Amino acid sequence: MNKERIAQLEQFRKESPNDPFLLYALATEYKEEKPEKAKLFFDELLEKYEDYIGSYYHAASLYAEHFDREKADKIYQKGIEMAQQLNEHHALKELKNAYTNFQFEE
């Protein structure tokens, strides 16, 4: 977790509050050391910007590791659905692979 980068991202977010990348960047900054805080950013991202496809893989992974596997399952499924709708073939392949691995973990 880089405090300088976080401060910079927070400043950018004040300047561009509707930029989903900034939520994503903040979530990934906090993911390892402060998963609770990362969860808040991912939740906001998934709620407000459901077509920001990059968030599904990381949000589902975070939920699976730290919080709620049932919610992680739903996030993977929603991400797969969105990737199909948006014709995001690379993201779809990654999400399907991650979801398969997730299912085997149970």
UniProtKB/TrEMBL annotation:
Entry-linked InterPro entries: TPR-like_helical_dom_sf (IPR011990)
Protein name: Tetratricopeptide repeat protein
Record-linked Gene3D superfamilies: Tetratricopeptide repeat domain
Domain of life the protein comes from: Bacteria
Species this protein is from: Marivirga aurantiaca
